[in-house]
Amino acid sequence: MGRGKVELKRIENSTSRQVTFSKRKNGLLKKAFELSILCDAEVALLIFSPSGKAYQFASHDMDRSIARYRNEVGLMEFNNYQRSRTIEENNRHLGKQNISMHLAGEDLSTLGMKELKQLERQLKNGVERIRAKKRRIISEHISLLKKRKVDVSKMKQELTLTSRGFRFQRICLKGPCKRTTPASKERAVAAVVLAVHMTGLGYEKDGQMGSKSHHQTARMLADQDGGDP
Amino acid sequence: MGRGKVELKRIENSTSRQVTFSKRKNGLLKKAFELSILCDAEVALLIFSPSGKAYQFASHDMDRSIARYRNEVGLMEFNNYQRSRTIEENNRHLGKQNISMHLAGEDLSTLGMKELKQLERQLKNGVERIRAKKRRIISEHISLLKKRKVDVSKMKQELTLTSRGFRFQRICLKGPCKRTTPASKERAVAAVVLAVHMTGLGYEKDGQMGSKSHHQTARMLADQDGGDP
DNA sequence: ATCCTCCATATTTGGGGTTA
DNA sequence: TAACCCCAAATATGGAGGAT
């Protein structure tokens, strides 16, 4: 994509790596979303930037998808090993949101009931996340104040002892708180996934039916399965 | 992509939906892989086909990513009585992709109270608009059904008269009719079928032509404001 | 029914330059 | 520094026809 061809290899230049991460992250999230809508599939995606920030998408519910994963994968994990790989992460921190506008008065006109339902659910989820976040902020704030109060009490006591006879006024708390080849696309895909497989970065689930046509060995190996019934 | 532009909407044709699923699934897996390599990010992806098959990709280790997710994202749900949820970029439909994209994956950790409040307000507005839209759809749907019911009643009446050997009298549909012409017979059959439909004795096909069933309407009504569990 | 190939067009996204 | 905008090269992927 873009001017130059990309080598499937960690981008060295820190800046462009960051930029690419941002772009591709959005692209991936979008694609995941589209897949879930277009094909009525359940999709869950977790992304952690090298700087440690987390991003996620779940067409239905992350926990549900995870549970489903554990359930289905657990069953066929008898003869499959999964392994981990450790890559490293670095600094950086991603940004702000374009919070404003646009959620105000848009399209909706072309949406069907189902989409509306889903959209509503998503928005509700968002609201819930935000509320949770607010609660957390508040509770942190409160404990901070408590801590301060304790400190102040000590200080007060100290002062009293040190200079008894004096009367102290109540102290008021306030103030601030703290790449691939263009040969054949299909083959490319297979190759990539195969690579993934070979390096153990992922593992295949070996679709429940071992009754896959055997004339596509490579594809079978590569693809996490051939498609769906 | 491809020949025609794509509507972000569930693909009706079962076959092409399956094909698209397969293609896009591969594409998504590939992109996820590329992101993890190029940008040195940790990516975990779960896909469940509508038929129930599971596919996955994990740059490091699925369990590790899940744990990390629970740790980072789950924090905000400590004192939360509700289940964890995720936002996705359905909001995209609302017009601007940007906000939605961010809302989708970005964790809220960098936001302050003020931003959170604003965001929450916007999301609530969105939810309200969606509900309004749903109400409108439902009411339109209901009036459509009522209208249909009237038509069917008329046809039934017509049928009754016909079957009793009464002279066929034009009752309502279109212009006057003579005797039992092939056309009227056809119409009669159609009426029966429709009647069966209306009484819920039959089941509907996949028709995408606004022909919803009672069941659907009922479900819509039920969902109207229930949103999701 | 599933999957592949081919092909034309829709999208994505490097790279640069600019601006908030 | 991060977020956009623009643009063209690089990809992704509908659609159609064919084989399995």
Structural description of this entry:
- Two copies of one chain form a homodimer.
- The two termini of chain A are 32 Å apart.
- The longest helix of chain A has 50 residues, at 113-162.
- Chain A is extended.
- Chain A is mostly helical.
- Chain A has a two-stranded antiparallel ribbon.
- Among the domains of chain A are: 11-73, 3-Layer(aba) Sandwich (SRF-like); 76-110; 115-171.
- In chain A, strand 1 (42-48) and strand 2 form a beta hairpin.
- Mean pLDDT of chain A is 62; it is low at 76-107 and 165-229.
- Chain A contains five helices and two strands; from the N terminus they run αββαααα.
- At the A-B interface, helix 1, strand 1, strand 2, helix 2 and helix 3 of A face helix 1, strand 1, strand 2, helix 2 and helix 3 of B.
- Chain A binds a DNA duplex (20 and 20 nucleotides) through helix 1 and helix 4.
